[in-house]
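Retry 2 of 3 after timeout on previous attempt. Resubmitting C-alpha cells to design endpoint.
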C-alpha cells in the first residue's frame, strides 16, 4: 500500500517521556462527545464534566466552544493524555452527514483524514489539523483512537477504513470495514498504515485498554443482524494480546451488550469506552445504543470476564442522555478545578 501524505510533516519528533501522568485515582471525568447528525450543530465535539469521583452527575462545559472544522463536521472524538505530561491530544472522524451528506458516500468517498487538536489545559484547543493517514484506495477513516505504547515509546493510532483495489478508482466494488493502525510521537507525523484487524467481515470502533501486561481490544461487529453466521452482529467482541500492535489477538468473549442473567442489555452497541470503575470496583464499559438510549453502562470485575452486566443508577454511575460516540478522560483534582468555572447546567 502506498505511503500516505502526512500534511508535509515527515520528520518524527523527539520521543516523549514514558512517565505516567494519569491520576492514580480519578477526582472527576471529562466526556468528549458529539450529539448526532439529526441536529444541525450535532456533529461537533462537545464536553461534559463530572466534578467528582463517582461518575454520577455531569455538567455541560459551555465555556468551551464546540470543536469542528469550518467546512465539515467532527464525530467520534477521542481524548488522550500526552505521555510526556505536556497536555492532551484529541482526534476525531472528519465527517458531516447532516444537511445532505449520505452514508454511502461517507463509506466510499469519505475523508481519509484524521481531525487533530492539541491542548495544554483542556480548555483551549489548537486545531483542527487535518492529517491524511490513508491512501486513495481507502473510502473513509472512522472513529480513530490512540494508546501509548511504553515498549516502543510511541502512540499506536487506529481507525476503521474501507479499502478498494487500485483497479477500482471509483470505489464501486464490494468491500468492508477493517481496522488499520499507524504510529506517531506527536500526532502530526504518522507511519504508513497497516491492517491491524481483518476478520473477513466489517468491524469498526475498536478501543484498547492495558491491564496486568495484557492489551484488551473491544470492537464492534458491524455485520447486519440476521446475517448467516453472525449471531452477535451489532454487539461488541473482546480480544487480548501481550503485544499492542500484534495482528493476532486471542479471543476473550463476544456478544457484549446483550441481556444477561435476566438483566436488560442494549438493542445494539457501538463506541465502546472502557475505564476503571469508580472507587476501584472493577471495570466499567460504556456502550452507545445508537438511535436508542445513548450510552449505557456495563460492569465486570476483570477485563477477561466472559460476562459484562448492565449497571443501574443506584450503583453510582449515570451517563447523560444525548451523548453520542465519544471518550472519557479521568481527571486530577487540579484539572477538575480548572474546568469548573466553564460548566453550565446539568446535562
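Retry 2 succeeded. Sequence:
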Amino acid at each position: 500500500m502506498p505511503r500516505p501524505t502526512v500534511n508535509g510533516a515527515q520528520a518524527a519528533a523527539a520521543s516523549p517521556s514514558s512517565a505516567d501522568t494519569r491520576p492514580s485515582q480519578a477526582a472527576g471525568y471529562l466526556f468528549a462527545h458529539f450529539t448526532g447528525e439529526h441536529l444541525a450543530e450535532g456533529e461537533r465535539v462537545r464536553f461534559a464534566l463530572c466534578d467528582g469521583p463517582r461518575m454520577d452527575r455531569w455538567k455541560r462545559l459551555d465555556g468551551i466552544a464546540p470543536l469542528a472544522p469550518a467546512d465539515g463536521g467532527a464525530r467520534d472524538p477521542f481524548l488522550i493524555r500526552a505521555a510526556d505530561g505536556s497536555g492532551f491530544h484529541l482526534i476525531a472522524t472528519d465527517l458531516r452527514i447532516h444537511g445532505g451528506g449520505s452514508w454511502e458516500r461517507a463509506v466510499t468517498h469519505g475523508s481519509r483524514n484524521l481531525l487533530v487538536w492539541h491542548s495544554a489545559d483542556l480548555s483551549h484547543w489548537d486545531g483542527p489539523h487535518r492529517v491524511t493517514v490513508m491512501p486513495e484506495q481507502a473510502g473513509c477513516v472512522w472513529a480513530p483512537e490512540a494508546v501509548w505504547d511504553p515498549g516502543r515509546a510511541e502512540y499506536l493510532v487506529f481507525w476503521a477504513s474501507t479499502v478498494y483495489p487500485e483497479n477500482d478508482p471509483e470505489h464501486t466494488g464490494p468491500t468492508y470495514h477493517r481496522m488499520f493502525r499507524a504510529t506517531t510521537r506527536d500526532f502530526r507525523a504518522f507511519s504508513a498504515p497497516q491492517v491491524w484487524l481483518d476478520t473477513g467481515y466489517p468491524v469498526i470502533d475498536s478501543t484498547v485498554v492495558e491491564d496486568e501486561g495484557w492489551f484488551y481490544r473491544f470492537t464492534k461487529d458491524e455485520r447486519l443482524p440476521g446475517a448467516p453466521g453472525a449471531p452477535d452482529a451489532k454487539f461488541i467482541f473482546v480480544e487480548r494480546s501481550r503485544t499492542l500492535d500484534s495482528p493476532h489477538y486471542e479471543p476473550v468473549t463476544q456478544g457484549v451488550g446483550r441481556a444477561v442473567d435476566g438483566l436488560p442489555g442494549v438493542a445494539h452497541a457501538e463506541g465502546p469506552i472502557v475505564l476503571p470503575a469508580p472507587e476501584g470496583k472493577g471495570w466499567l464499559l460504556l456502550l452507545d445504543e445508537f438511535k436508542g438510549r445513548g450510552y449505557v453502562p456495563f460492569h465486570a470485575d476483570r477485563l477477561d470476564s466472559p460476562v459484562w452486566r448492565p449497571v443501574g443508577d443506584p450503583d453510582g454511575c449515570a451517563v447523560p442522555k444525548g451523548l453520542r460516540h465519544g471518550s472519557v478522560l479521568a481527571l486530577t483534582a487540579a484539572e477538575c478545578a480548572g474546568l469548573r468555572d466553564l460548566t453550565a447546567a446539568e446535562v
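Attempt log closed. The first strand starts at residue 28 and ends at 34.
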